[in-house]
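Each record in this resource describes a single protein on a pair of labelled lines. With that in mind, the following record should read easily:

===
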Amino acid sequence: MIDPLIGARSIHFATTAIVAGTAFFGLFVSSPVFRQAGAGVHPEIAAYHRSIRQVAAAALVIAVLSGAAWLLLLAVEIGNQFASEGITIGLVLTLLTKTQIGFDWIVRLILAALLSMLLMSGGDEPGPLRWRAAALALIAAAFIGGLAWAGHSGAAPGVAGNIQIAADVFHLIAAGAWIGGLVPFAMLMALAFQTANQTTILVARDATLRFSMLGIASVGMLLVTGIVNSWMLIGDLSNLIGNRYGQLLLIKAALFLIMIVVAAINRSVLTPKLVAGSKTTQTSAACAAVQQLQRNSLIEIGLGFAIIAIVGVLGTLPPHGKHEFTSGTPISEGQSGQMHLH
């Protein structure tokens, strides 16, 4: 049976990644591609843009609800109560106003409100205003990056803690850009395959090239920050293989490597086929590449969400790393495996 806290964490991470990924995809991929292609006159592109906004809005709502559930379940654990016995309002307010994770949740709730206003204010135009796309991406980056203060990084003291926080923030943003961005990318490939006209094929080609570059940058950031985080939390190989935290981290790394392999196939094999096929009036070859890109992106999404589920577990386990975690005034989940409130 899935621990409710782990379930709430995993859902929150996944939906937050989708919110961030759609924002980054819009700024760096779809909006410039649509403007360059002059695709605004095509109703299917406008419908795609509307669908993406709906997906982002739904993900944001679920992220807020799962974040609230996460906080309430923490209150239950801190109060040593069962969920059926209820939670006192005072305990929840204390958690919100006097702990690190509570303050983090308040800030991120404000960011969620700003994101919702931007999503609702946007029209159905395929190439939204640059300032709106930039603002959406910036706030979404803060929204997902703020999760760093809700995990192990938020409990580490001193300079080591600051380094770990910075690495975790960029790690989360990169994960959102890649894993979350796969959702609008898969939807765009589905659109190109279903319509199979010259305009959508060209859009799919340019979007694939742009998203490939975004993916490369994200993978590089994930590798660097992942190494920093692992070194800070684990320390040496004995800690990596000698406890559940390290073992799950190895599984996470293995899934990440599989994602890289699939992405490499997309870039080195399928993207050249799509580019070559888009240069001819016969779209069959390009459509075949688009269809395979869609399938592979769905595989990557599944692997990415499996990684997120592991992250949901890791935050509740002690890392047994080389740096000790303090239990000062702010609390953070996974702090030496306990929830402390002072």
Observations:
- Confidence is low (pLDDT under 50) at residues 323-342.
